[in-house]
């Protein structure tokens, strides 16, 4: 994954510049107000500092929609240009008004990077390490603060520090950021797919993943063009089609079997629907076992939780759906999604269609009561032939070749769509359905074995010989195939080159789609709760912008860096939700410790120990959890078509709350005092914990498109309940 890691590091240089700027202006403003005689003009002094907030807020209002039109990379290039221009103008700044203009330009760069870098990383990173890479903006931002504090502290020891040099030095890393965005950063493959530029998207994915076989992710990105309709949760016992679940070539409709098709030529599997009171059925109706019978628990949280549940039996123990680290039931080189027929194929080479018998049917018994399909007309999407680029090989339905589920894969082969998930298709009257699969924790054995945990114990004699595995499936209408694909009962997909057609971007009306609306509520509220008062915490303890306070700030930054590194290490292991649920209570304790030290009479030494300890603990836990995770989640939970617009709304919420908290600080401190302010933030943190526990799902290891599908499925649950 070296390619994805290097790209993420290069993109987060913009956040490094943000941290650098925030720290530099805190030290430089002392000397700015001396030169321009602003000691008696606190409004102008505050405006110099806050102008970057104004610029960031202003440009955020349209950054996402513009990025949806022109791409993520051009907007990051624009961010680097704004940083460079702002720093050069600050280096010149003959008067305070030019300085305000420079700060505004600098704010434009900050707003673009803060908004788009998490989005860009989420769209380029593998799902297994997406959380780790999306912690980099916080880490490099703190690193920028650290280096800037060192520079400002050293310069503050001089007799006449030059504030223009302090601010203008930003031009050097800004120039590096510009070079990286122009010469190194690729465009987001998801954005390229949304614009019909599939060949470019494939090349970018190959570079990011360091392998040629990226067929699985290409299929996933195509499906990400639309959130599926009529979602349902189903369960299967899956076996290879060459000997079926009952031995021999599976006959049509026997034992209610359905056929699952992969994107590789002729690859297919036979799936036996599981009926009755299965474990998944219980979980999908009632949620994760750990969250049963909890009042006000959002069904969406329990639905996501069932994927990550680790204490349920499944074919021999372990996670109900298997390890999140990789696929256990589809081999590397025999991936269902390997659309490339081999290295010898040339792009543009046309291949004929092979006849294929679409045996199998949809069994209504295998649908969980949680998500019953809703009635409605099928949306006519573009056919698969119009979306499959040249060089992707022949039809994903051609031929009769089948592959063993547990065949040993060769190193470097396909690995599904990430996080142990696979994408398949199945026939439905009038068209196809897409199936997101997550496999059992352990492979089943041969004839005579027992399968437990799904549908109770099942004798393999009932389904026949052959390798098999239990799997859960999220099934919905495909975004790339329609009923026209199966005209006459045969696939009409060839090796034709697709038209370079763009998908429609999201409009304001799309924000009211049930799944998007629920995701937007989660993202906006998290951004509001994220403003937990770190700036007030430091300012209220008397830290000011002189050499001593800069040194203290430098020390606090040193403490933050290892905490962020710990967060990076566990982000994709413990998960976003778990980290917040464990760190927020520590924030509450730290805040009330500060309240205690403010209202209780004690000696100077004990008060200093409690105050310093409370600040250090608070900042350490904040940067591990609430300081970074809201931005990660906001970049994960929205569908491709609406991601830019929704990210803009969430980022705008953050900037507005930042301004509100910054300018309400003096009023709060004057009217309520330290104890009152810390009490308010302590109560706010407790409310944050309740919201996270009840409303925020766990997204670790899940492909972005699967997350969007789950949000749509959760909205379907509420529709049925209401």
Automatic annotation (TrEMBL):
Write out the entry's keywords from A to Z: Membrane, Transmembrane, Transmembrane helix, Transport
Recorded hits in SUPFAM superfamilies, A to Z, give: MFS general substrate transporter (SSF103473)
GO MF term set:
transmembrane transporter activity
Positions of the UniProt region annotated as Disordered: 335-385
Among InterPro entries, the record links this protein to: MFS_dom (IPR020846), MFS_sugar_transport-like (IPR005828), MFS_trans_sf (IPR036259), Myo-inositol_Transporter (IPR050814), Sugar/inositol_transpt (IPR003663), Sugar_transporter_CS (IPR005829)
Domain Major facilitator superfamily (MFS) profile intervals: 7-700
Please list the residue ranges that the record marks as compositionally biased, kind Basic and acidic residues: 353-367
Organism from which the protein derives: Linum tenue
The residue ranges crossing the membrane are 43-63, 75-92, 98-121, 133-157, 163-185, 547-567, 579-602, 608-629, 641-661, 667-694
**CC annotations in GO:** membrane
Regarding protein family, the annotation reads: Belongs to the major facilitator superfamily. Sugar transporter (TC 2.A.1.1) family.
Name the principal localization, coarsely classed.
Answer: membrane
What protein name applies here?
Major facilitator superfamily (MFS) profile domain-containing protein
Q: Where in the cell is it found?
A: Membrane
Question: How the protein sits in the membrane?
Answer: Multi-pass membrane protein
């Amino acid at each position: 994954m070296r390619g994805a890691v290097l790209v993420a590091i290069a993109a987060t240089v913009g956040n490094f510049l943000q941290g650098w700027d925030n720290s530099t202006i805190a030290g430089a403003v002392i000397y700015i107000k001396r030169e321009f005689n602003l000691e008696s003009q606190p409004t102008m002094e505050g405006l110099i500092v806050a102008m970057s907030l104004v610029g960031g807020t202003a440009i955020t209002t349209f950054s996402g929609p513009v990025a949806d039109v022109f791409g993520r990379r051009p907007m990051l290039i624009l961010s680097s240009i704004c940083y460079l221009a702002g720093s050069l103008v600050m280096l010149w700044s003959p008067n305070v008004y030019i300085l305000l203009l420079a700060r505004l330009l600098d704010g434009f760069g900050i707003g673009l990077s803060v908004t788009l870098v998490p989005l860009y990383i989420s769209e380029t990173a593998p799902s297994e390490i997406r959380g780790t890479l999306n912690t980099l903006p916080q880490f490099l931002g703190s690193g920028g603060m650290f280096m800037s504090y060192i520079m400002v502290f050293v310069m503050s020891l001089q007799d006449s520090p030059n504030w223009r040099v302090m601010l203008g030095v930003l031009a050097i890393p800004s120039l590096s950021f510009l070079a990286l965005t122009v010469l190194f950063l690729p465009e987001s493959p998801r954005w390229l797919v949304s614009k019909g530029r599939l060949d470019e998207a494939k090349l970018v994915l190959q570079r990011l993943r360091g392998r040629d076989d990226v067929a699985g992710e290409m299929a996933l990105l195509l499906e990400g063009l639309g959130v599926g309709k009529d979602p349902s949760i189903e369960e299967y016992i899956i076996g290879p089609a060459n000997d079926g679940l009952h031995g021999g070539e599976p006959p049509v409709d026997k034992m209610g079997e359905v056929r699952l098709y992969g994107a590789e030529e002729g690859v297919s599997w036979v799936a036996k629907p599981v009926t009755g009171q299965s474990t998944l059925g219980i979980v999908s109706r009632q949620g994760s076992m750990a969250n049963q019978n909890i009042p006000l628990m959002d069904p969406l949280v329990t639905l996501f939780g069932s994927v990550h549940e680790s204490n349920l039996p499944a074919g021999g123990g372990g996670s109900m759906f298997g390890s999140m680290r990789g696929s256990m039931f589809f081999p590397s080189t025999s991936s269902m999604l390997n659309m490339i027929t081999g290295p010898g194929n040339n792009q543009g080479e046309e291949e004929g269609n092979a006849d294929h018998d679409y045996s199998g049917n949809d069994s209504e018994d295998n649908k969980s009561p949680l998500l019953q399909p809703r009635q409605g007309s099928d949306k006519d999407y573009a056919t698969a032939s119009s979306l499959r680029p040249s060089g992707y090989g022949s039809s994903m339905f051609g031929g009769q070749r089948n592959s063993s589920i547990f065949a040993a894969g060769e190193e470097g082969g396909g690995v599904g769509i990430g996080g142990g998930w696979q994408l398949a298709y199945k026939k439905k009257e009038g068209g196809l359905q897409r199936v997101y699969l997550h496999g059992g924790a352990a492979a089943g054995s041969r004839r005579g074995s027992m399968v437990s945990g799904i549908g109770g114990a099942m004798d393999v004699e009932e389904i026949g010989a052959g390798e098999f595995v239990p799997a859960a499936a999220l099934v919905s209408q495909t975004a790339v195939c329609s009923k026209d694909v199966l005209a006459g009962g045969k696939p009409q997909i060839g090796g034709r080159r697709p038209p370079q057609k763009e998908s429609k971007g999201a409009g304001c009306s799309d924000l009211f789609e049930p799944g998007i609306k629920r995701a937007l509520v989660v993202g906006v509220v998290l951004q509001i709760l994220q403003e937990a008062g770190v700036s007030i915490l430091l300012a209220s303890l008397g830290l000011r912008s002189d050499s001593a306070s800069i040194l203290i700030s430098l020390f606090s930054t040193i403490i933050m860096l290892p905490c962020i590194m710990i967060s990076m290490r566990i982000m994709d292991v413990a998960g976003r939700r778990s980290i917040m649920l464990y760190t927020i209570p520590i924030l509450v304790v730290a805040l009330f410790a500060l309240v205690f030290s403010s209202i209780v009479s004690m000696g100077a030494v004990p008060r200093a120990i409690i105050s310093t300890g409370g600040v250090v603990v608070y900042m350490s836990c904040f940067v591990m959890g609430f300081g970074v995770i809201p931005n990660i989640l906001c970049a994960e939970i929205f569908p491709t078509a609406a991601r830019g617009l929704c990210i803009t709304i969430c980022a705008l919420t953050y900037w507005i709350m930042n301004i509100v908290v910054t300018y309400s600080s003096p009023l709060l401190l004057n009217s309520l005092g330290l104890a009152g302010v810390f009490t308010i933030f302590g109560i706010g943190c407790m409310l944050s914990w309740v919201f996270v526990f009840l409303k925020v799902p766990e997204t670790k290891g899940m492909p972005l498109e699967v997350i969007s599908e789950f949000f749509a499925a959760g909205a379907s649950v509420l529709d049925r309940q209401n």
